[in-house]
Amino acid sequence: MSRARRRRERVLEHLTELREMPLGGGPAPAFRERLRAELVAGALGERPEPAGRAAGPASGPAHRRPSRRRPLLSQLAAVGLAGAMMVSSFATYQAVPGDTLYPLKRAAESTFVRLSTDDAERGRRELASAETRAREVASLLGSSSGGPLVGRTLKDMEKSTKSGIERLERVEPRSPKIKTFAEDQKETVKPMLQELDDSQLAQAQDYLDYIDGLVPPE
Protein backbone atom coordinates (compact mmCIF):
# COMPACT_ATOMS: atom_id res chain seq x y z
CA MET A 1 0.00 0.00 0.00
CA SER A 2 1.39 3.40 -0.98
CA ARG A 3 2.24 6.03 1.62
CA ALA A 4 -0.34 8.43 0.16
CA ARG A 5 -3.07 5.82 0.43
CA ARG A 6 -2.13 5.01 4.03
CA ARG A 7 -2.33 8.71 4.90
CA ARG A 8 -5.72 9.02 3.19
CA GLU A 9 -7.09 6.05 5.13
CA ARG A 10 -5.80 7.47 8.43
CA VAL A 11 -7.48 10.80 7.70
CA LEU A 12 -10.77 9.05 6.90
CA GLU A 13 -10.52 7.07 10.15
CA HIS A 14 -10.02 10.28 12.15
CA LEU A 15 -12.92 11.99 10.37
CA THR A 16 -15.15 9.01 11.08
CA GLU A 17 -14.33 9.20 14.80
CA LEU A 18 -14.99 12.94 14.85
CA ARG A 19 -18.36 12.50 13.14
CA GLU A 20 -19.47 9.95 15.74
CA MET A 21 -18.78 12.27 18.68
CA PRO A 22 -21.87 13.84 20.27
CA LEU A 23 -22.47 17.52 19.59
CA GLY A 24 -20.86 19.63 22.28
CA GLY A 25 -18.58 16.81 23.41
CA GLY A 26 -14.83 16.52 23.16
CA PRO A 27 -12.48 13.95 21.68
CA ALA A 28 -11.76 10.93 23.85
CA PRO A 29 -8.35 10.84 25.61
CA ALA A 30 -7.35 7.75 23.63
CA PHE A 31 -8.11 9.56 20.36
CA ARG A 32 -6.06 12.60 21.41
CA GLU A 33 -3.09 10.47 22.48
CA ARG A 34 -3.10 8.42 19.27
CA LEU A 35 -3.38 11.54 17.12
CA ARG A 36 -0.55 13.26 19.00
CA ALA A 37 1.68 10.21 18.55
CA GLU A 38 0.98 10.11 14.81
CA LEU A 39 1.64 13.83 14.39
CA VAL A 40 4.94 13.68 16.27
CA ALA A 41 6.04 10.54 14.44
CA GLY A 42 5.30 12.14 11.08
CA ALA A 43 6.97 15.45 11.90
CA LEU A 44 10.14 13.97 13.37
CA GLY A 45 10.70 11.36 10.69
CA GLU A 46 13.89 11.69 8.66
CA ARG A 47 13.80 12.53 5.00
CA PRO A 48 14.57 9.60 2.72
CA GLU A 49 17.96 9.43 1.00
CA PRO A 50 17.68 11.01 -2.48
CA ALA A 51 17.67 8.40 -5.25
CA GLY A 52 20.81 8.04 -7.29
CA ARG A 53 23.13 9.48 -4.67
CA ALA A 54 25.06 6.36 -3.81
CA ALA A 55 28.08 6.59 -1.57
CA GLY A 56 31.30 6.52 -3.61
CA PRO A 57 34.89 5.93 -2.60
CA ALA A 58 36.35 8.56 -0.35
CA SER A 59 38.50 11.11 -2.14
CA GLY A 60 40.36 13.56 -0.02
CA PRO A 61 39.73 14.28 3.63
CA ALA A 62 36.50 13.00 5.06
CA HIS A 63 33.84 15.61 5.57
CA ARG A 64 31.08 15.32 8.08
CA ARG A 65 27.78 14.92 6.27
CA PRO A 66 25.26 17.52 7.40
CA SER A 67 22.26 16.19 9.25
CA ARG A 68 19.22 15.56 7.09
CA ARG A 69 16.79 16.20 9.89
CA ARG A 70 14.63 19.20 9.47
CA PRO A 71 15.43 22.05 11.82
CA LEU A 72 13.71 21.79 15.17
CA LEU A 73 11.71 24.92 14.47
CA SER A 74 10.29 23.40 11.28
CA GLN A 75 9.42 20.21 13.12
CA LEU A 76 7.56 22.10 15.83
CA ALA A 77 5.79 24.21 13.23
CA ALA A 78 4.67 21.08 11.38
CA VAL A 79 3.32 19.54 14.59
CA GLY A 80 1.58 22.78 15.52
CA LEU A 81 0.03 23.19 12.08
CA ALA A 82 -1.20 19.61 11.98
CA GLY A 83 -2.63 19.95 15.47
CA ALA A 84 -4.38 23.19 14.55
CA MET A 85 -5.89 21.52 11.49
CA MET A 86 -7.29 18.68 13.59
CA VAL A 87 -8.68 21.13 16.17
CA SER A 88 -10.31 23.03 13.32
CA SER A 89 -11.74 19.77 11.96
CA PHE A 90 -13.16 18.94 15.37
CA ALA A 91 -14.75 22.40 15.66
CA THR A 92 -16.20 22.00 12.18
CA TYR A 93 -17.84 18.67 12.99
CA GLN A 94 -19.35 20.15 16.15
CA ALA A 95 -20.94 23.05 14.22
CA VAL A 96 -24.73 23.31 14.02
CA PRO A 97 -26.95 25.13 11.48
CA GLY A 98 -26.34 28.86 11.71
CA ASP A 99 -22.71 28.53 12.81
CA THR A 100 -19.96 30.00 10.64
CA LEU A 101 -18.31 26.61 10.14
CA TYR A 102 -21.52 24.75 9.34
CA PRO A 103 -21.26 25.04 5.51
CA LEU A 104 -17.75 23.58 5.77
CA LYS A 105 -19.13 20.71 7.84
CA ARG A 106 -21.74 19.91 5.20
CA ALA A 107 -19.17 20.12 2.41
CA ALA A 108 -16.92 17.70 4.31
CA GLU A 109 -19.84 15.31 4.78
CA SER A 110 -20.63 15.40 1.05
CA THR A 111 -17.00 14.68 0.23
CA PHE A 112 -16.97 11.83 2.73
CA VAL A 113 -20.03 10.30 1.04
CA ARG A 114 -18.53 10.68 -2.44
CA LEU A 115 -15.39 8.85 -1.30
CA SER A 116 -17.48 5.74 -0.61
CA THR A 117 -16.27 2.67 -2.46
CA ASP A 118 -19.74 1.22 -3.17
CA ASP A 119 -23.47 1.87 -2.77
CA ALA A 120 -23.68 0.01 0.55
CA GLU A 121 -21.00 2.16 2.13
CA ARG A 122 -22.48 5.30 0.61
CA GLY A 123 -25.92 4.41 1.94
CA ARG A 124 -24.56 3.88 5.45
CA ARG A 125 -22.78 7.22 5.36
CA GLU A 126 -25.93 8.99 4.19
CA LEU A 127 -27.82 7.45 7.11
CA ALA A 128 -25.05 8.68 9.40
CA SER A 129 -25.66 12.17 8.00
CA ALA A 130 -29.38 11.79 8.75
CA GLU A 131 -28.54 10.87 12.34
CA THR A 132 -26.35 13.97 12.56
CA ARG A 133 -29.22 16.13 11.28
CA ALA A 134 -31.49 14.71 14.01
CA ARG A 135 -28.96 15.63 16.70
CA GLU A 136 -28.66 19.10 15.19
CA VAL A 137 -32.43 19.61 15.38
CA ALA A 138 -32.34 18.66 19.05
CA SER A 139 -29.57 21.20 19.66
CA LEU A 140 -31.47 23.95 17.80
CA LEU A 141 -34.69 23.59 19.76
CA GLY A 142 -34.99 26.35 22.31
CA SER A 143 -32.39 28.58 20.67
CA SER A 144 -33.42 32.05 19.56
CA SER A 145 -32.35 31.45 15.96
CA GLY A 146 -33.65 27.90 15.69
CA GLY A 147 -37.03 28.58 14.04
CA PRO A 148 -36.46 28.41 10.28
CA LEU A 149 -33.29 26.35 10.72
CA VAL A 150 -35.23 23.56 12.43
CA GLY A 151 -37.56 23.07 9.47
CA ARG A 152 -34.68 23.18 7.01
CA THR A 153 -32.67 20.65 9.01
CA LEU A 154 -35.67 18.32 9.30
CA LYS A 155 -36.00 18.44 5.52
CA ASP A 156 -32.30 17.64 5.05
CA MET A 157 -32.65 14.76 7.53
CA GLU A 158 -35.50 13.27 5.51
CA LYS A 159 -33.61 13.68 2.25
CA SER A 160 -30.48 11.92 3.56
CA THR A 161 -32.60 9.17 5.10
CA LYS A 162 -34.49 8.35 1.92
CA SER A 163 -31.35 8.44 -0.21
CA GLY A 164 -29.45 6.18 2.19
CA ILE A 165 -32.34 3.72 2.54
CA GLU A 166 -32.80 3.48 -1.23
CA ARG A 167 -29.12 2.64 -1.70
CA LEU A 168 -29.06 0.05 1.07
CA GLU A 169 -32.29 -1.62 -0.03
CA ARG A 170 -30.89 -1.91 -3.54
CA VAL A 171 -27.72 -3.76 -2.49
CA GLU A 172 -28.61 -5.12 0.98
CA PRO A 173 -32.41 -5.52 1.11
CA ARG A 174 -32.35 -7.20 4.52
CA SER A 175 -29.57 -5.15 6.04
CA PRO A 176 -29.93 -5.03 9.86
CA LYS A 177 -28.56 -1.50 9.64
CA ILE A 178 -31.95 -0.30 8.33
CA LYS A 179 -33.86 -1.60 11.35
CA THR A 180 -31.25 -0.30 13.79
CA PHE A 181 -31.24 3.10 12.11
CA ALA A 182 -35.04 3.39 12.22
CA GLU A 183 -35.20 2.48 15.90
CA ASP A 184 -32.41 4.89 16.85
CA GLN A 185 -33.97 7.73 14.87
CA LYS A 186 -37.34 7.23 16.53
CA GLU A 187 -35.69 7.49 19.94
CA THR A 188 -34.02 10.75 18.87
CA VAL A 189 -36.95 12.40 17.07
CA LYS A 190 -39.94 11.49 19.26
CA PRO A 191 -38.82 13.51 22.32
CA MET A 192 -38.66 16.62 20.11
CA LEU A 193 -42.32 16.56 19.07
CA GLN A 194 -43.66 18.60 21.98
CA GLU A 195 -41.16 21.39 21.24
CA LEU A 196 -41.97 21.79 17.53
CA ASP A 197 -44.40 24.27 16.02
CA ASP A 198 -47.25 23.09 13.80
CA SER A 199 -45.35 23.00 10.49
CA GLN A 200 -42.29 21.39 12.06
CA LEU A 201 -44.49 18.87 13.86
CA ALA A 202 -46.08 17.85 10.56
CA GLN A 203 -42.61 17.31 9.07
CA ALA A 204 -41.47 15.23 12.02
CA GLN A 205 -44.65 13.12 12.06
CA ASP A 206 -44.35 12.37 8.35
CA TYR A 207 -40.74 11.37 8.93
CA LEU A 208 -41.66 9.06 11.80
CA ASP A 209 -44.38 7.46 9.67
CA TYR A 210 -41.80 6.82 6.96
CA ILE A 211 -39.22 5.17 9.21
CA ASP A 212 -41.94 3.16 10.98
CA GLY A 213 -42.54 1.51 7.62
CA LEU A 214 -38.89 0.46 7.46
CA VAL A 215 -39.27 -1.96 10.37
CA PRO A 216 -41.29 -5.06 9.44
CA PRO A 217 -43.88 -6.14 12.02
CA GLU A 218 -42.75 -8.97 14.23
Report on this structure.
The structure is a single chain. The protein has a domain at 95-212. The protein is 67% helix and 0% strand. It contains eight helices and no strands. Helix 7 runs antiparallel to helix 8. The protein is globular. Mean pLDDT is 75; it is low at 43-51 and 77-88. It comes from Nonomuraea terrae.
Radius of gyration, rounded? 24 Å
The residue fraction in helices comes out at: 55-70%
Q: What's the SSE pattern?
A: HHHHHHHH
Largest sheet: none
Query: What is the SS-derived class?
Result: mainly alpha
Q: How many strands?
A: 0
Oligomer: single chain
- Global shape: globular
The fraction of residues assigned to DSSP E strands is under 5%
Straight-line N-to-C gap: 46 Å
Pfam families: DUF5667
Protein name: DUF5667 domain-containing protein
Biased composition (Low complexity): 51-61
Region (Disordered): 42-70
